[in-house]
Design brief:
The chain has 672 residues and is an alpha+beta fold. It has 4 domains: 6-107 and 109-142, Endopeptidase. Chain P, domain 1 (Glutathione S-transferase Yfyf (Class Pi), Chain A, domain 2), CATH 1.20.1050; 179-244, no CATH class; 274-340 and 534-602, no CATH class; 350-513, Neurolysin, domain 3 (Orthogonal Bundle). It contains 26 helices and 7 strands. The protein has helices spanning 25-47, 55-64, 67-82, 86-107, 110-118, 126-142, 148-178, 194-206, 232-244, 255-271, 277-282, 290-319, 328-338, 344-347, 353-369, 453-470, 486-496, 503-509, 521-529, 535-553, 564-575, 592-595, 606-623, 629-640, 648-656, 663-668; strands spanning 181-183, 213-215, 372-375, 387-392, 398-407, 417-422, 432-440. α1 packs antiparallel against α3 (67-82), α20 (535-553) crosses α21 and α24 runs antiparallel to α25. The longest helix is centred in the first third of the chain and has 31 residues, at 148-178. It is globular.
């Protein structure tokens, strides 16, 4: 006898949190398959309805459909990203093409499209009319206008792209693990904080290398340990291991997947009537055109590279020898320490994960929005490291659940992200259940997790996404929370980074974990004084990745190269960001944002595009008194709660009173 499948019916747990402890891999497989079948039956009932198409029997019926599939897929893909065993990865390989085929079966259904097109929108409220409009747009972008032969080819392309994206994600995850640097002698780790050395020892032991030290990698090119390691040879080995991922002529090489993906995306764009894949993607974003995006990045790149070169000159003088890429972070940390008297390793004891969360992130959210957080140890996540909080409004009413999964492990992909297990919808009577995932090194037992300033920033950033999901107050699930255009989704999360250095927030969480003493005022001043240092590097590194993304996705099928590495070098040079000491934040071989699925493909520019809105929003908060409940209520009601229920740029104008201006961003990054 097998136990009943918990996913086949709504979860009895608060807010619909899946009962992960009771769900097996077979349950996921069974529930997704059942969800696919049930959803197709629901779609057939809508499409084949002999009655006149109305908003209720067509559009609302569509919004209510697929609940079993959504419930099962949300739980399953949470594990794919955060706790993927071999069995989960095998199931992902099996299910991903089926889900792609299913999407085509829905949005290439001509009867269904005809019913949506026949719905009378004249008497609908604005959100309902937008819902019809957005569905019709998705039908068009999915190829409903194509003839039968072209649609069949499009289905083949979509299924193959799904397979390639899954393969890329799985290979890069394994490549990140296999590229971790094993060190025999602890003296080679001189300069690393003792907590990081202990973490490296734990990681080595877990990998079967007792008595040695394993420097695990994070997703981006530059690794945090490069700022501390005094041994230049070890720095070089770590740096080169990071950059070689995915292009090392082994079983984890992804170059074949990249070229196939780019070629198929170009063909898909042509089939759908677009000049290239980038033009197809921009049709779904807030940016007015792809040329506007390129012009914005083209304006930023020369100033960023000029600033980066000034930083390189200063670093070479300090080093006293020819600077190499693996030296940059090390000597940059020394500049912060010697010129600005900021020792980032020395201030880590003031940033424990627990304090950053409870006294920083949660404290700021309570001060701004009035919400409170109540840990629920009675509720289990999908892994023992996952913690669960119930979030309540100021009046005590329940808002949703927040799950935090902060530590790295072998079964988790790199990077940091937010995702939803349950999305808010008044139509379905659901409230948000959202997750933040990071990859912080787990400390030795009994020791606190001490964060770098960059990790503090990531905790605040990802919680901004969480607030976007939790504050959603829309009718239709399609518009819920972070279901906004890709080049808008990073905006609320970047705004939330503002509170890191806000005086009353910083004073509340930045306290020494042993003495309880606050971060000294002179260090705070020096941190603020040093904010522009390194912006040349950071902007150039980011633009390198964003412009590399562009280069891959403006290609026609005939222009797709054979040599990934040569193409990458040429693309960076032509874009003016090929600085010899600054690799792009992601090289093609581990650029999961654009090749492990289509999430940020042709839209990695979104971060800087969203930062224009973010920087202007920070100015608004400063002009209006900062961290106040009144300001929080305005930002929540006009922007965070709206999801995609109206044009996000309309929401921005309603909040700001005008369109965003570029100048605050230029000033922030030292590019004015």
């Amino acid at each position: 006898m097998t136990s009943p499948n918990p996913l086949l019916s709504p979860s009895p747990l608060p807010f619909g949190l899946p009962p992960f402890a009771d769900i097996t891999v077979q349950h996921y497989a069974e529930a997704v398959e059942a969800g696919l079948d049930q959803h197709l039956q629901e779609i057939a009932a809508i499409a084949d309805n002999p009655g006149r198409a109305t908003f209720d029997n067509t559009v609302l019926a569509m919004e209510r459909s697929g609940q079993l599939l959504n419930r099962a897929a949300a739980a399953f893909f949470t594990l794919v990203s955060a706790d993927a065993t071999d069995a989960i990865r095998d199931l992902e390989t099996d299910l991903s093409p089926k889900l792609s085929t299913h999407q085509d079966a829905v949005f290439l259904n001509r009867n269904l499209h005809e019913r949506f097109a026949a719905v009378d929108v004249s008497g609908l409220d604005a959100e309902s009319a937008r819902l019809v409009e957005e569905y019709l747009k998705e039908f068009r972008q999915s190829g409903i206008q194509l003839d039968a032969t072209a649609q069949e080819r499009l289905k083949e392309i979509n299924a193959e792209l799904s397979r390639l994206g899954t393969g890329f994600g799985q290979r890069t995850k394994e490549a990140m693990k296999s590229a971790a640097l094993l060190v025999d002698d602890v003296t080679d780790l001189a300069g690393l904080p003792s907590s990081d050395i202990a973490g490296a020892a734990e990681a080595a032991a877990a990998a079967g290398h007792e008595g040695k030290y394993l420097l695990t990698l994070i997703q981006p090119s530059n690794q945090p340990a490069l700022a501390s390691l005094e041994n230049r040879t070890i720095r070089r080995r770590l740096f080169e291991a990071s950059l070689a991922r995915g292009t090392s002529d082994d079983s984890l090489d992804v170059r074949d997947l990249i070229l196939q993906t780019v070629r198929l995306r170009a063909e898909k764009a042509r089939l759908l009537g677009f000049a290239n894949y980038a033009e197809l993607v921009i049709d779904q974003q807030t940016a007015p055109s792809f040329e506007a995006v390129r012009a914005m990045m083209g304006r930023l790149a020369p100033a960023a590279v000029r600033n980066a070169q000034g930083e390189a000159t200063a670093l070479a003088e300090l080093a006293g020898h020819e600077l190499q890429p693996w030296d940059w972070a090390f000597y940059s940390a020394r500049v912060r320490k010697e010129k600005y008297q900021v020792d980032e390793q020395a201030i880590r004891p003031y940033f424990t994960l627990e304090s950053v969360l409870s006294e920083g992130v949660f404290h700021a959210a309570t001060a701004l929005y009035g919400i409170t957080f109540h840990e629920r140890p009675d509720l289990d996540g999908y892994h023992p490291d996952v913690r669960v909080w119930e979030v309540r409004n100021e009046d005590g009413s329940r808002l949703g659940l927040f799950l935090g999964d902060y530590f790295t492990r072998e079964t988790k992909r790199g990077g940091a992200w937010m995702n939803s297990l349950v999305e808010q919808s008044r139509l379905l009577g659901t409230q948000g259940v959202v997750i933040n995932n990071l990859n912080i090194t787990k400390p030795a037992p009994g020791e606190p997790a001490l964060l770098s300033l960059d990790e503090v920033r990531t905790v605040f950033h990802e919680f901004g996404h969480a607030l976007h999901g939790l504050f959603s107050d829309v009718t239709y699930p399609r518009f819920s929370g972070t279901s906004v255009p890709r080049d808008f989704v990073e905006y609320p999360s970047q705004v939330n980074e503002m509170w890191i250095m806000w005086p009353e927030v910083l004073a509340n969480y930045a306290r020494h974990h042993q003495t309880g003493e606050p971060l000294p005022a002179d260090i705070v001043r020096k941190l603020n004084d040093s904010q522009l240092w390194g912006e040349g590097f950071a902007t150039t590194e980011y633009l390198g990745a964003a412009l590399l993304d562009v280069a891959w996705h403006v290609l026609s099928e005939a222009d797709v190269p054979e040599d990934v590495i040569a193409f990458e070098a040429k693309a960076l040079a032509e874009a003016g960001v090929a600085h010899p000491l600054i690799p792009p934040r992601y090289r093609s071989g581990y650029f999961q944002h654009i090749f492990a699925g289509a999430g940020y493909a042709a839209s990695y520019y979104s971060y800087i595009w969203s930062e224009i809105l973010d920087a202007d929003t920070v100015e608004w908060f400063k002009e209006n008194g900062g961290l106040t409940r009144t300001n929080g209520d305005v930002f929540r009601s006009e922007l965070l709660s709206r999801g995609n229920s109206r044009d996000p740029l309309v929401s921005f104008r309603a909040f700001r009173g005008r369109d965003a201006e570029l100048e605050p961003l230029l000033k922030r990054r030292g590019l004015d």
